[in-house]
């Protein structure tokens, strides 16, 4: 490689390295804001701001979903295994909402144990399989089958 | 030995004229293979693959969404390499490639965003969230559009290539962010299903049509790049003797 090209290569690589470092630092500085939601652990620990618009995310606790028979009010607990709190929502839940499923809720935190949601989104994992396979896994008592509990809901 | 072969190919394909004859030989069989592969994968996935245990049939959009997204990301990596060669070695074919790779990649990035959005509504309950994966993918589309725009806005083709090349190189950082956004930060978007190392979390009856669709999309991208690069080469070399002869012979 002749010296002119070598110099150009060095300049380009230096620019790239510099920008990569800048981006990495930016990511590091903004790491809280880049995360789409606060986890239950953060909420319980009081790291999440009260009375401001924000998102929380976690797994819906089994057996915690309470629907009001006459209105669209629903309450449920969400957890990440390190903390849990109650979410209240009024409206239609997405199809994939079920116990044990990951969700992201947008709203305000009233206290470290109660969240008023204006919008509830269902997260889904990266697992795809036919229903028959899921049934077979469930019968065999495979741990991966647990996620689909309440599918008939 | 391998290095020697790569080096020989690099120099041969670096010649616009050699590239032109080479692509005329490759395209007649690569085009049908690409189309057959893509159609096979899509028909298999959309019509014959089993439905999903949670999402039912709506998961089938994966057969378009994932091939488009992976194509857009790989295309950008290729764009970055072309940019590097164009900026450092000033190779003409790299400048041609810089121009040939961008449009299809931009289209795929747009398809990825649109299909993802349509998939998001029934599964997540929203068309769009500003989460890290979606935002970085939108930036990828803007990078593609930026590279295309820079090439069009600067008249002198060699200067245009250098500017666009630099932008292409810088944008590679964003490709890394798109890829790892779902692992580094909390996102609404789920993690990767297909894993290069380790077991993929998708049933084989769904995985094979998906892999075939992806391969088909990549091949179609390659076909598109070859066709675009050919016309760009013809335009750039329009005053040369071999292109003049080509025109006289009726473009065959």
TrEMBL record, chain A:
Q: Where is the composition biased (Basic and acidic residues)?
A: 136-153
Membrane topology per the record? Single-pass type II membrane protein
Molecular function terms, GO-annotated: heme binding; metal ion binding
| Gene Ontology cellular-component terms listed | plasma membrane
* Swiss-Prot/TrEMBL keywords: Cell inner membrane, Cell membrane, Cytochrome c-type biogenesis, Heme, Iron, Membrane, Metal-binding, Signal-anchor, Transmembrane, Transmembrane helix
Q: Which InterPro entries match?
A: CcmE, CcmE-like_sf, NA-bd_OB-fold
Where in the cell is the protein located? Answer: Cell inner membrane; Cell membrane
Q: Which residues lie on this side of the membrane: Extracellular?
A: 30-153
Q: Where are the transmembrane segments?
A: 9-30
Domain of life, per lineage: Bacteria
Q: Which HAMAP family match?
A: CcmE (MF_01959)
Stated family: Belongs to the CcmE/CycJ family.
Instruction: Write the protein's name.
Output: Cytochrome c-type biogenesis protein CcmE
This chain's source organism reads: Alcanivorax nanhaiticus
TrEMBL record, chain B:
Alphabetical UniProt keywords: Cell inner membrane, Cell membrane, Cytochrome c-type biogenesis, Membrane, Transmembrane, Transmembrane helix, Transport
| Its membrane topology | Multi-pass membrane protein
- InterPro entries in alphabetical order: Cyt_c_assembly (IPR002541), Cyt_c_biogenesis_CcmC (IPR003557), Cyt_c_biogenesis_CcsA/CcmC (IPR045062)
Q: Which GO terms describe its molecular function?
A: heme binding; heme transmembrane transporter activity
Please list the residue ranges annotated as the Cytochrome c assembly protein domain.
32-189
Q: Which GO terms describe its cellular component?
A: plasma membrane
Q: State the function annotated in the UniProt record.
A: Required for the export of heme to the periplasm for the biogenesis of c-type cytochromes.
Q: Which family does it belong to?
A: Belongs to the CcmC/CycZ/HelC family.
Protein name as catalogued: Heme exporter protein C
Q: Which organism is it from?
A: Alcanivorax nanhaiticus
**Lineage start:** Bacteria, Pseudomonadati, Pseudomonadota, Gammaproteobacteria, Oceanospirillales
Whichever gene encodes this chain, its name is ccmC
